[in-house]
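Ticket #4471: structure output looks truncated?

Reporter: J.K.
Steps to reproduce: submitted the chain below (259 residues) through the standard prediction queue, then opened the result file.
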Amino acid sequence: MSSRTRALAVCTALVLALLLTAALAPLPYAVAYPGMTANVLGNDKGKPVITVTGAGTRKTSGQLRMTSIVATGPDASVHLPDVIEGWFRTDEAVMPREAVYPVGNNTEEIAEHNAKQMEQSQDTATSAALGQLGKSAKDIKVKLSLADVGGPSAGLMFALGIVDKLDGDGAGHDLTGGHTIAGTGTITAGGKVGAVGGVPLKTQAAHRDGASVFLVPRKECTDARAELPKGMRLIPVSTLDGAVDALKALRTGGDVPHC
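Returned output as attached by the reporter:
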């Protein structure tokens, strides 16, 4: 064997070794998938998602579905083949691990953080909804119950559910128009809607569970259009007032915002 041939064989072996190491080495990514959705106007595990005391509530029709994603855990090993597969699939997304799990180093810490965010989201959703209706939190109490869900991204849908339960569109009609409406977005006590992550996967979850309309934070229109399911209508929102107005217009055939 000539020296050149031996050198080529050594280089080939090194390249193969590097490729094998890269394929087997864990990478700082998480793989996310469409998660569960839940109708905030209905029940979850036998309990109403929204319970109001101190004021009468309406009997509603249609659905307002919050959406979610699920992802590989913070302790899971994600390898190069997983990343490559995720890039080519429309029902998966490869995301930096810190984007999915910005705090905490283990499942318990992350679950505790997400539970706190969900609790805060419920409080701000209640404040936003009652403020939108001009009602006082001193007189009306709202309890929100949704098991196995964490984080703040259901805030918008919680707020809309409270508005629909208490007042509908203000003229005796449901905000949903009897349809299945899905969406996502954080919300402040003042009613501002904020961006979230994983919107393309959430539109797929919504479509899977029967929604044909999706409320999306306005800043995430571009993301929402990526891999948008056929027949899904996007409505951009930036405030709770704007979301309520858009749903009213959707029911009556008025001018509805679009991405």
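Triage note (M.O.): checked the attachment and the full token line is present. The longest strand covers residues 29-39.
Status: closed, working as intended.
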